[in-house]
Amino acid sequence: IAENPELHISGLARLLGVTRGAASQTAGRLERKGMIVKVPSLDDNKKIFLKLTKKGHTAALNHKNAHEKYNAVVSDILSGADSSQIQFLADFFIRFEKSMKET
Asked: 12, 18, 38, 83: least surrounded by Cβ within 10 Å?
């Protein structure tokens, strides 16, 4: 939501690869936690835009910082790996992702 300021429920569903119902439930949980507010579209009564609250912006920033920290750790670990080790990991994650999508 932080990276897509004009996001609505259908857009969130597409972005996450889930149904609109699942996206709506997720948005409801975020709203109850005070992370977002739902703002009706002025042009289309059916569209509800999702906007981060101050608390939501803080959570998004903390999430981004955590990813940057973990990426730095992974980069540091991989800097000592040879090409065959990196290829093994790449193949593993490709197979893992494919397997997760099939489940």
From this structure: 83
